[in-house]
User: What shape does this take?
Amino acid sequence: MTAPPAPAETQQGSPELLRSVFRQHAAGVAVITAAHGGRPAGFTATSLNSVSAEPPLLSFSVGTGSSSWPALAASDHVGVHILGEHQREVAGLFARSGADRFGPSTAWRHGPHGVPLLDGVLAWLVCRVVARVPAGEHRVVIAEVIAGDPLGEGRGQGRPLLYHGGRFNALRD
Assistant: This one.
């Protein structure tokens, strides 16, 4: 009879422990956008969550040191874009610090309340910000859904982009 494997060593709470565990967690990929002073801003988020159906609320987190934070801190409305597996480059662009996120390679338009809306996404929402909750060096933004398109430009066709193991990935059958 063989002995059962020894349990893994328990680690104390740390930023690296949190990052290591969440590398094992697959998350959907979204881009959050806002406009402030006529200038669009946006970032890639894997922290998007449904909060409530009544009223329709969602949340995401954003670092207060990010280049998008000033626009998100000042904006009353945000755009939430669900990316498809064909949009790895878009996810990478909006995740990269210092990138020209709304340059010539990004197809977008002004949506309700002046929110920048990305073209080619699986689905999008425009939301009214209702709270910005401090959480360490981040803010958890809670927003109420006011408009959107659940089918996106592909009219419901396409598969979501995922983030797992530090990389953008496609679903596998």
